[in-house]
Amino acid sequence: MKTVTTVKEMRALTERWRRNGKTVALVPTMGALHDGHVSLIKAARAAAQRLVVSAFVNPTQFGPGEDLDKYPRDLKRDARLAANEKADVLFAPASEEIYPAGFDTTVTVGTALTQTMCGLARPHHFQGVTTVVAKLLAIIRPHQAFFGQKDYQQTLVVKRLAADLNTGCEIVVLPTVREADGLAKSSRNTFLSEEDRRVAGAIYQALKLAEGMLQVGERHPKELLEAVRKRLKSEPKLDLEYVVAKNADTLEDVLILSGRVLVAVAVHLGATRLIDNVIVDVPSGS
Length: 286
Prior knowledge:
It is a single chain. This protein is of the alpha/beta class. Helix content is about 40%, strand content about 20%. It is built from 10 helices and 9 strands. A 6-stranded parallel beta sheet has the order 1-4-3-2-5-6, with helices on both faces. The chain has a 3-stranded antiparallel beta sheet with strand order 7-8-9, covered by helices on one side. The longest helix is centred in the C-terminal third of the chain and has 22 residues. It is globular, with a radius of gyration of 19 Å. The model has no long low-confidence stretch (mean pLDDT about 95).
């Protein structure tokens, strides 16, 4: 496996691959690879003839006071894990390579997908995400890019970006990979103390509670969300940012829960922000 740090070299490689008729897959990450990333890399490796894993801590998606400076970084470990899964390239550019002096362009997806849930507390987050993803798709020109369901709102935003800008890239979303107690794998889990890890298990328990309620016939968002909030608030260390039940395809609020239903939460556990979700197929009219 080769580690590439410049846009020029990365573009030259992928252009050569495409000229030679090779299919290209991308797994975009911010590094600090874990089992969730590995599951994406495995799927991408099986799907394409050439595989790029990017490891770039994108500064434009962090707001003031967020954890950009302390976000975990271990490029040697990332390279080792990517190589173990037979990636062809680890693309690990510096910030100034992606955002050179004079850079003055942003890419924005409309408010229906971005000005809700995580977009309310982090108003500039998705603009940072869509700008860097647009750049990665332009540089690497993958046929497919692989994302995890844990960041579900982000996957919808990226799908809209890829379609609206005619990138020709299929956005593939794979299930969330979890710890034994259900906690979604995340690079930020490394910030949690042993006690915090115990408390964090309540997040998935609350989501499974919602899933069970939907499966036995609950169709009213108010009752469902009250039950989820009650379970989360039973852990005093969890500071609830949001809990929502929405149409999973549009992120619209609904009066009656039916079709593909997204139940999503965001909490703060000390200084660490954690998000998770479940999607439940609810028969219409049931």
